[in-house]
Structure formats: structure tokens, C-alpha cells
Queue: 2 jobs
Job 1
Amino acid sequence: MRWKIPAGVVLTLAFLAPPASAAAAPPAVNAATTCPTVFVYADFRDRITIDLDTASDTEVRLLANQLQAEARAEKLTTSPGRFQTALDGTPENLRTYLKSGWQTSWRIDLRVAVNQTMSAGGPNVKAAAQIVLDDGTVEAFLAFQNDGRYLARAADAGNLKLFADFRSLITIDLDTASDLEVRLLANQLQAEAKAEKLTTLPGRLQTALDGTPENLRTYLKSGWLTSWTIDLRVAVNQAMSAGGPNVKAAAQVVLDDGTRDVFLAFLNHGLYVARAQDCV
């Protein structure tokens, strides 16, 4: 189970992220949009765990068969046939193909998969897929197909809610900033917390705002982190309570971990992958 947000998902998040306070009625979507087939596209580069210069012909042939089986399982367009052609050739040609030749077909197949997702998707899927196609890297293709497309589909269904990393919102030096700058920051954090409907942080920020400038400054240095962490845990529990078996299992892993980064990664992308799995 992966909760680190890949670069391609960051691209998708950057495009999709609406103002947290903006609420839109979910548009009508068809079953193909809300219940896609879910499987993971493997990074074939990770599958090559032998030294192709020193491995035996049998080991090389076994690797080629494994890659071909994976390509077939993912319904890739050209790779299965190219692997078969290499398997039908000499051991030397197969070894050479596995060193580099297969990557061209694989990259084409991933681009085709993104285009297929784009063709079947709504406006957010199409726009996010175009960003990935313009990027053109294998990493972006994999991240979109394995994660980003589910966020885009949720946005098209009106079900996407993104949680800000409040730590990144603190862009002033709390030791040297003026009282006015500190107060403005607290109000910005409170507005975001209210927009996300967090449970405890808005009230705690208000209490700090009602206190002295020194107390507010102290609270913004570290005190708010406890309330924010509690609110993220509550959000994960709420998603878990309303979710199907895959959401519940994934949320439990996150709750057992208990760190803010894992809470955010789950709420901002892992949840949507798990929901797609439950839909299927």
C-alpha cells in the first residue's frame, strides 16, 4: 500500500485543487466514470532484478516471460507481441532486447493507456490527462494511471475534497513578523480550517486570536499542530466509517501509522484509489 504522493499525482492535484470553500453540486456521471476497472500498472524497470550481462539464458528467458505475463495482465497494446518476438529469436537477441529495446514499446503502451483514460473521462480527467501527456515521462504516466486519474474522476463526480498541509501555509518568520502579520496568518489558517470543516482547529485558533499577541504567536509556533493532527485523524475515521472494505482496510493502516503526512496522503489520494477499488 503506497501513501507517498508521486510527482504525477502532484501535477493532478495542482490542476484539480479548488478553493476549499467552493462547493458544487455533483454533476451526473455514468457508471464507467464512477466504477472504473482498477489495477496497478507495474514499473517494469523494477522487475529486472538480474544482471543481464551475467545471467544464464534460462534466467533471461524466465524474466522475459514474466514481463510478458505482466504486460498481458495490464492489457498493454504492443509490449506482449514485442516480447514474444524477442522470445522467438536467439538468446543473444532476447538479452539485447531486455537491456533497452522493450522500454520504447512500454512507454508507448503507457501513453496509449493514458489516452484511453482521457477519452473515456469527464472534463477533469481530460484536463489532468493532457497535463500528463504533455509531461510525457514514464513516471508521470504511471502516477496518473495508478493514482491521479482517481482524483480526477472524483472531481468530475463532485466528490473531491482536498486537505491543505497547514505547515506550508506558515510563510512568515513568527519570531520577527509584526503582530498584524501574525494575526493575519491566524485568520487565514482559521478560514482554511473552517472551509475544510475541521473539528477542533477553528475554535482553538479563535481562542488564540482572542488572547494576547504573545499567546497567539506562541500558539502558531507549535500549539496548533496537536489540534490539526486530531482533526486529520477524525477525517480519516469519518472516511473509514462511510467507506467500503478497501477504504476501511486502507484507513486502518493509516490510523495505525498515526502521522500527519500519512493522514494527508490518504485523504488527498489514497482514499480515492480505495473508493475506486470498492466501487468495482
Note: The longest helix spans residues 91-120.
Job 2
Amino acid sequence: MLQELLRKNASTLFSLLLLVVMPVVVSSTLAYFLYDYQRVLQNLSFGPALLYFAVVSFTMTFALTPTTFVALVTGYFFGWPGFVGVVVSYGLASLLGYQVAQLIDQGKMLGFLNRFNKAAAVMEELRNQSWSLIFLTRISPVLPFAFMTFILSIMRVDRKKFLLASMGGMLPRTLFFFWVGTQAQNIITLINNDNTGNQGKILVVVLILISVFGLYYIFNKALKKALARSTKAKF
């Protein structure tokens, strides 16, 4: 079964691996490039600023930059006038990532899981709770944005719910890290050692705990319902 999973879903699994590794590698390198051109970025006019947000939408879609990195950097360079641009960029990156994941996977992973009745039942229950599922995956600062976009896409959650719940879930941590960026004095220090303070660290921990326990509750509830349905079907 494992060999079949790897063989039939190689492109999907390889893409998921890249979506975890790439943000860490690229963002650490990009910080030094931004340092060299920080004066240019701090004085962008409206047209180039739109181009910037289009570029970060692309980089977030393909996991070249983490969403936290984008919020910090945009807060540093643009201040609060750039906040709406970040939120819209998250939305564009979510939709692009959703579509790209479907093009890569083409329903193969879900088709494989649907061969197992219990797995198919759990997936259906999770889709029924997609608002909560999406929101909780987005609120956590440690769950990779592009990776979770890919997972949610191949689960075939509703596109409209996906967009709205994604943007709502991203908002608390985006506000916080954007604010941290506006307070920074140096881009390198900001990226390598973002000083969030004790209150910031507490907020991050709280968001992670909300995400972890919320997701545990949803998965546990979906599993129990799927098992109950399976037991009832036998009789």
C-alpha cells in the first residue's frame, strides 16, 4: 500500500516536501538582498508598490517566502498603509495555491484515500467542518501557509469558504507581525531576531494552542462520526 501511495502520488508528495523546505531556505537569503535595497523599497510609488504585492503573492503561493516574513518586511518598508496590500496578497496567494495544487494533484490523493471507507468518511466529515478546519490551520504561526493551502486544496474544501476562512484566520497573526515590522530599526535584525517581547511570545503561544486543540477536537469529532457511520452501515 505504501509503495502504491508513493508511486501514484509522487508529484503531490514531492510538492508537499518542497513547500515545507523552501520558505526557510529562501527567506534567510532574501533578507540580505532586502538590506541592500531597503532605501529603494521604502520609497516606492503606487505602481511599483502594486508590483511588490503581486510578487509577494507569487512567492507565498510557491512557498518562496513565509507569510510571517512578508508581514514583517512589509510592515518595515511600508508601514500601516501597506497592511491592506498584505491582506489582499494573502487572498491572492491562497487562491493561486489552491488552483496550482489541484493542477498538480488532479484528485489522485483523494481518489486513493476514497478507496478506504473509513478514510473517505473522515475526509467527508472534515469537509463538513471546513470553516473551522481552515480557520484553525491559518491562525497558527507555525503551520506553513503554502503547505496547508496544498493540503486543503487536495481535500477539495469549498473554494469560497477556503478564501474567506483563510483570510479571517490569518488576520490576528498578520496584525501582530506587521506591527512588529513597523517598530523595527534594521531589516537584518528584524528577520534574524524579531524581538516580539514577552506579550508577543504569549500571543504566539496562545494562537498555537488554539490551533492545536481546535484541530484535535475537529479531527477527533470527525473520526468518531466516521466510525459511528461505519458501525451503523454494518448493521
Note: The chain has a mean pLDDT of 79.
